[in-house]
Write a structure and sequence with these properties.
The complex is a heterotrimer of chains A (367), B (357) and C (285). Chain A is α+β, with helices and mostly antiparallel strands. Helix content of chain A is 23%, strand content 34%. In chain A, β11 and β12 form a beta hairpin. Chain C is globular. The chains are: A alpha+beta (367), B alpha/beta (357), C mainly alpha (285). Chain A: It is an enzyme of class 3 (hydrolase).
């Protein structure tokens, strides 16, 4: 079994009485892309800063390539960090920026020049060595910031929401490029973000974090289709959510009566849910099937009819909102891409249905 | 009975007339003077009596002349430089205007002092100054520790090494010259002779420099040095010594054997003054014996007002008499007018003394 | 429309032009003209370079001139040396109230006049003063020690008086340095000194230069501090100018001195800018 590049065990950080990170454990295998996804203030930056060495954990251990780095100051750790605003040195040109770490290591001048040239080549920006930082575009700066770290060949590269400052188009482009760079350098990336699409697209593994704890660690697919906590279910991807009381349970299948009066079938996927519990059911918009008539959805155990209240056109990701005839909240439903429902308009009556498997049910913690 | 009634009527009429004429004649008097020469109680009394208002600006000889020179004699209506600093600057810069002696009540002045000042401040037949406050500079000593100092040159004696203070200004040059047996006043008209005297004084002051604690430049600085005991012998004004005497009986003013240097501060009218009537009113007002006594109380120096001595406090008189036995009074060297241009010679000497190690 | 625009422009510019010409240009031209006059007799003057000649011919003046410049440069360097850590602490380490409190501490001395501030130092340093008494009380010295009236006292006074003018521009520039840039330096393997040398100081250069220029000018033009703390050997160039103008009534030589001081400070400021590769626009903008 290979030693993980990065391993955190029971990592805890408290600031006074408030705990920012609570008992977090994870490991990142070599060469993989690991993301920590969570809303702002969830503690993900604190983890990052502890790994980089700018914060000392209250308890727990951080091991890189099997060796604890708790006693090493940031400038002695085999990790490098790409900062949120990149933190390029504005007083130096690009070559000096990239060569900074090498100079600090005491590498000889010709060697530095060679390595800097090489890494510039790899990020596809040769001949920009003499330029100043503010002469580069956002995407170029991004790549230089990564090159500045990669030239040092760190064991782990930390990235602190580096795409946050870019505009949407460039961000989409950089997601793909980052992933490509990661496989080109074959280095372990630890990436933190609050943007689920960044995490889902790039990562091999994702940890979803909330209020200082990891909710779930898994592949993008796992998180999306098999969320283990209500938080993950609602945070990753879009969901329709109903809250209510469980009226019957049989195996994993259960029935729930929502606060708005709907009867819904759901599945607990092995989680403990019992009769009479307060619970929530999450259903993804694309899991809901649209039908012109009741017959189209007859085979689903959840069936509803309603009136279209809004059409949200967004190309491939177009949705409709509909209000069920039986009352309750609006339901978001993905439009199939076949074009079958392209002429749907506001006020039309439609029928929707989904299987109980798609109704992810969680007992809400009582408190 | 009739007479009395008439007198009362007359007095009332005059009073009424005065009251009527007051608003028309009321002016603002911008007075450029020394600290203590225009105490608040005197100003208040003057304003009440005449209706004029007074704005006081405190200064010293050099700054008064520099200020008036900068404006060509404007900005002030009455100034009080020393009598030796009037003829020279007037000839050079024309910053004063002649005094109309008919508007001044000569009977309030000590005649000898008035005549001497008039003579010293006459340029082209015009009189530019009348005397106000006079005093001397000499030695301020802590007699317990520096009793051996009798003259300026004794400040260079080893007994008081490191505990001496004087100003780097012209009175020091003049005082040392006298104390070294020369007569700088006699050489005022002869630049070569004066330069020669000054060169000797320069040599003496450079030789004396290690003895000096600090060259004082303001009265407060000297007071601090003497009060703290950091200096035990200084060259300074008589009032400074008397003031220190109140705190420490050992410290007092001593007239040096070669003679204290006598100065008279005067009244002059700046060339562009615009409230001459108020200025004459002020002069005649403050020269009244009882008002002069109030100024003596504030400034510590006696005035040229005839009969004001009677109002002065016995304490001050006693100090004066202790510092000035009759022969010392006769020995006071009164500054003659400084010819224009002498300052340049003295300036070079002072610069070199300051720079010497 | 166009005319109204122009009128607005002229009106906007008038205060600046008035200020420049009335308060800066005209006095300097006048001072220059005065410095070219030579007194040949009572109230008679001729145009000549005699005043500048007497400045160059008199070693005393040149010596004082050089001494003033060197001491001012030293005071500036010392102020920078002390002010930089203070500014760094205020800008980068102190937070919230501590930060305001420290800033206030730098400012407090300026609530009283320079005269009072200087008197404060005299009280501390003089022979019968606080420091001397403390040393005697602690048994470190036998007799009273005079710490006033020497060049060190002048230096202390100058540094104290100028501190704020160094700290404020430094805090401003250091504030603009993103913390993450410093962290990036550490992260990439930089040590404290190397980050200071390669990142912090280059970034703070405009602040360092503008602060130094202001402090240098203040020290060079200071009058009270050198005179009062320096005592009998103070020898400061402004003192020469003052005594020429006020005591000697020799405005002509005083004006020449004033002009020499203007030239000296301009040359040194220009030289510093050249040496550090800064421009006035960058520093003051």
């Amino acid at each position: 079994m290979t030693i993980p590049d990065l391993e955190c065990t029971d990592l805890t950080k408290r600031f006074g009485d408030t705990s920012a990170v609570e008992n977090v454990s994870f490991e990142v295998p070599p060469g993989s892309f690991f993301s920590i996804l969570g809303p702002s203030g969830c503690g993900k930056t604190t983890i990052m800063r502890m790994i980089a060495g700018f914060l000392a954990p209250t308890s727990g251990d951080i091991r890189i390539k099997g060796r604890s780095v708790l006693d090493a100051p940031p400038n002695k750790r085999p990790v490098n960090m790409v900062f949120q605003h990149l933190a390029l040195f504005p007083m130096m040109n690009i070559a000096d920026n990239i060569g900074y770490g090498l100079r600090r290591q005491g590498v000889s001048k010709p060697e530095i020049t060679r390595k800097v040239g090489e890494v510039l080549e790899r990020i596809g920006l040769p001949d920009i060595g003499e330029r100043k930082v503010d002469e580069l575009s956002g995407g170029q700066k991004q790549r230089v910031a990564i090159a500045r770290c990669m030239v040092l060949e760190p064991d782990v590269l930390l990235l602190d929401e580096p795409l946050g400052a870019l505009d949407l188009k460039l961000r989409e482009h950089m997601k793909i490029e980052l992933k490509a760079l990661q496989s080109a350098f074959d280095t372990t990336f630890v990436y933190i973000t609050h943007d689920q699409s960044e995490a889902l697209v790039m990562s091999d593994n994702i940890a979803v974090m909330n209020a200082g704890r990891f909710e779930q660690i898994g592949s993008a697919r796992d998180l999306y289709y098999r969320p283990e906590t209500p938080f993950v279910a609602s945070f990753v991807g879009d969901s329709n959510r109903w809250r209510g009381r469980v009226v019957s349970v049989s195996g994993d299948n259960l029935r729930l009566r929502s606060e708005s009066g709907l009867d819904l079938c759901g599945n607990s996927h092995g989680r403990p849910v019992s009769d009479g519990d307060e619970a929530e059911i999450f259903v993804r918009p694309e899991a809901i099937r649209l039908g012109r008539g009741e017959a189209d959805i007859a085979h689903f155990d959840n069936r509803l009819s309603g009136r279209v209240t809004s059409l949200l056109f967004n190309g491939a990701a177009s949705r409709i909102l509909l209000r069920p005839d039986s009352g309750g909240e609006e339901i978001e439903v993905a439009l199939p891409q076949s074009g079958e429902f392209a002429h749907l308009s506001r006020g039309d009556t439609v029928h929707v249905g989904w299987s109980s498997d798609q109704g992810n049910c969680f007992a809400t913690e009582t408190g | 009975m009739k007479t009395t009634s008439n007198q009362v009527t007359l007095a009332t009429a005059i009073a009424g007339l005065l009251a009527l004429s007051q608003p028309a004649a009321a002016e603002t008097l911008r007075l450029l003077t020394w600290g203590g020469y225009a105490p608040e109680n005197v100003v208040a009394k003057f304003e009440e009596e005449t209706g004029h208002s007074v704005e006081v600006t405190l200064s010293n000889n050099e700054e008064m002349i520099a200020k008036l020179r900068a404006t060509g004699g404007g900005g002030f209506d009455l100034a009080q430089p020393s009598q030796d600093r009037i003829a020279g600057p007037q000839a050079e810069f024309g910053i004063y205007k002649p005094i109309d002696l008919s508007k001044i009540d000569a009977s309030q002045f000590i005649p000898s002092m008035l005549e001497a000042t008039k003579a010293n401040t006459t340029v082209d037949g015009n009189v530019y100054g009348v005397p106000h406050v006079w005093g001397t500079s000499g030695l301020v000593l802590n007699t317990a520790e520096a009793g051996m100092v009798k003259d300026y040159t004794d400040l260079c004696a080893p007994e008081v090494a490191g505990k001496v203070s004087y100003r780097l200004r012209r009175p020091t040059l003049i005082g040392f010259a006298f104390s070294m047996g020369m007569d700088p006043f006699a050489a005022y008209g002869d630049e070569a002779a004066y330069t020669e005297i000054m060169e000797k004084v320069e040599a003496k002051l450079i030789e004396c420099k290690p003895n000096v604690k600090a060259y004082w430049s303001g009265g407060d600085e000297l007071m601090n040095l003497m009060r703290s005991g950091e200096a035990v012998a200084a060259m300074a004004w008589d009032t400074g010594g008397w003031k220190l005497n109140e705190d420490n009986a050992d410290v007092t003013f001593v007239a040096p054997t070669s003679g204290a240097l006598g100065w008279i501060d005067t009244f002059v009218l700046p060339a562009k003054g615009s409230a001459d009537d108020a200025a004459y009113d002020w002069i005649n007002f403050v020269m009244r014996p009882e008002v002069s006594a109030m100024i003596t109380e504030a400034a510590g120096n006696f005035t040229a007002s005839k009969g004001a001595d009677e109002f002065a406090s016995d304490e001050l008189k006693a100090k004066y008499q202790a510092s000035f036995p009759p022969e010392a009074v006769d020995n006071i060297k009164w500054y003659p007018p400084v010819p224009a241009g002498l300052e340049v010679i003295e300036g070079g000497v002072l610069d070199r003394v300051k720079a010497a190690n | 429309m166009q005319a109204a625009h122009r009128l607005g422009f002229v009106l906007l510019l008038t205060p600046l032009l008035l200020w420049l010409s009335l308060l800066i240009l005209i006095p300097h031209v006048d001072m220059f003209l005065v410095s070219l006059r030579e007194r040949v007799g009572v109230g008679e003057y001729a145009t000549s370079l005699a005043n500048y000649r007497s400045f160059i011919d008199e070693p005393l003046y040149l010596w004082t001139f050089a001494r003033t410049a060197v001491m001012s440069v030293m005071a500036t360097a010392l102020t920078l040396l002390i002010g930089f850590p203070v500014a760094y602490y205020i800008a980068k380490m102190a937070r919230g109230r501590v930060r305001s409190a420290l800033f206030l501490l730098c400012l407090v001395p300026f609530w009283v006049s320079e005269l009072v501030r200087t008197f404060g130092w005299m009280i501390l340093l003089r022979e019968t003063g606080l420091f001397s008494s403390l040393l005697q009380w602690a048994g470190l010295v036998d007799g009273p020690v005079e710490m006033l009236y020497n060049d060190v006292a002048i230096m202390v006074g100058l540094v104290y008086t100028s501190m704020l003018f160094m700290v404020v521009p430094l805090v401003t520039t250091l504030d603009s340095l993103d913390d993450s840039v410093i962290e990036a330096g550490y992260d990439l393997g930089g040590s404290g000194p190397s980050i200071l040398r390669e990142i912090v100081i280059p970034h703070a250069m405009p602040g360092i230069v503008s602060g130094s220029i202001v402090v240098f000018m203040l020290s060079l033009g200071n009058y009270l501090t050198p005179i009062m703390l320096g005592g009998k050997d103070s020898l400061w160039f402004t003192e020469l100018i003052y005594s020429q103008f006020i005591v000697r009534f020799n405005w002509e030589l005083g004006a020449a001195f004033g002009f020499m001081l203007l030239i000296l400070s301009s040359v040194i400021v220009w030289g510093t800018l050249r040496l550090t590769g800064q421009t006035l626009e960058k520093t003051m903008g």
